[in-house]
From TrEMBL, chain B:
Pfam families (alphabetical): AzlD
Transmembrane residue ranges: 6-25, 37-55, 67-97
InterPro entries attached to this UniProt entry: Brnchd-chn_aa_trnsp_AzlD
Keywords assigned: Membrane, Transmembrane, Transmembrane helix
Organism: Streptomyces virginiae (Streptomyces cinnamonensis)
Taxonomic superkingdom: Bacteria
Protein's UniProt name: Branched-chain amino acid transporter AzlD
Length: 240, 102
């Protein structure tokens, strides 16, 4: 999930487009994103199994966390022997971007209060990207719902299949499946590296993450690496 | 048990931030500095996680077949391959290098 950061500076149109967008076109876009990304739940199921997470636990994560990067981060940290609190903290910080998506979506979708607790669960990279790409509120609501539903169903089914498949396969490392997690992170990261600032943050985080790895308990180095973001912003502020 | 604690905390934390975004009045999180930080935080975390999960085993830094797999994923990204192809490239190349004794 979350491979494309399409939502940088979206413009929310308050008035509907003159003719509206055909529902079929919105549904087609939404299904395309939902199916492509939903299938990658398979990679999560396999990675979770390889990390020693039970099939039930992998499924609970996909059902109740439902934000891919956080899920991968959590199982990765647990596999590395991290304690539950630092592991959950890393997953939590990765999930904070969803709050900013929600902020945009609440203005765009104007959901009834009663629906918000349910809709919140689907506030992720892809549903936001599809909803923000629509020209009017009706299309945005449709895009959000179809993407959310498709992705949620597929992500959970493929998580189960991946976890079961990995158990059947046996040694996931022989199949190179331990490379799936980092590849997912790289695919999420690549579209974010738009300017020198993002690249500086990534480079500093990489050095901090690897540098502290041998000397600090598992899960802590990644939290220290998160400091690269404020440090680079602060240095940029001082220079200008 | 530890795994369930971590799962419980992650479930609550990740849902809370999603819901908070829908509830918070517009403007509260719209300060430029907060938005810049929120955009850069995932960059830092993903870079660190990519590096750690490629170049470490436990608390030791290592270079093994995963490095080749990640390079393949990077190449696929440069070629604008779809998400699943990127992940598949990493998996196949890592498996291939291991099979060759790497």
């Amino acid at each position: 999930m979350g491979e494309k950061q399409l939502v940088t500076e979206p413009e929310i149109r308050e008035t509907p487009a003159p003719d509206g967008r055909p529902r079929a076109a919105v549904v087609r876009d939404a299904l395309g994103v939902g199916v492509a990304v939903g299938l990658s739940g398979f990679a999560f199921g396999v990675t979770a199994a390889g990390a020693g997470i039970s099939t039930l636990q992998a499924c609970v994560l996909s059902l109740l966390v439902f934000t891919g990067a956080s899920q991968f981060a959590l199982v990765g940290a647990l596999a590395a022997g991290g304690n539950p609190f630092t592991a959950a903290a890393g997953a939590f910080f990765l999930g904070t971007r969803n709050a900013f998506y929600g902020l945009r979506l609440s203005q765009l979708l104007r959901l009834p209060r009663a629906l918000r607790p349910l809709a919140a669960h689907w506030v992720i990279d892809e549903t936001t990207a599809v909803a923000l790409a629509q020209p009017d509120r009706r299309s945005a609501r449709l895009g959000f719902t179809v993407t959310g539903l498709t992705l949620y169903v597929l992500w959970n089914v493929t998580t189960l299949l991946g976890a079961l498949g990995a158990e059947a396969i046996g040694d996931t490392k022989a199949w190179g499946l331990d490379a799936a997690g980092p590849a997912v992170f790289l695919a999420l990261l690549a579209p974010m590296l738009k300017t020198a600032t993002e690249r500086a943050v990534a480079a500093l985080a990489l050095v901090l993450g690897l540098g502290f790895l041998p000397v600090l308990p598992a899960g802590v180095p990644v939290l220290i690496a998160a400091l690269a973001a404020p440090v680079v912003l602060w240095m940029k502020g001082r220079r200008s | 048990m530890n795994v369930w604690i971590a799962i419980g905390l992650t479930v609550v934390g990740c849902y809370a931030v999603k819901y908070a975004g829908l509830l918070v009045p517009a403007g509260a999180l719209e300060r430029p500095l907060v938005r810049r930080l929120a955009a850069l935080l995932p960059v830092a975390l993903l870079a660190a996680l990519t590096a750690q999960q490629t170049f470490s085993t436990g608390s030791a830094l290592v270079v093994d077949a995963r490095a080749a797999g990640l390079a393949a994923a990077g190449l696929a990204l440069l070629l604008r391959a779809p998400f699943l192809v990127v992940v598949a490239a990493a998996v196949v190349v890592t498996a291939g290098v291991r099979a060759l004794g790497g």
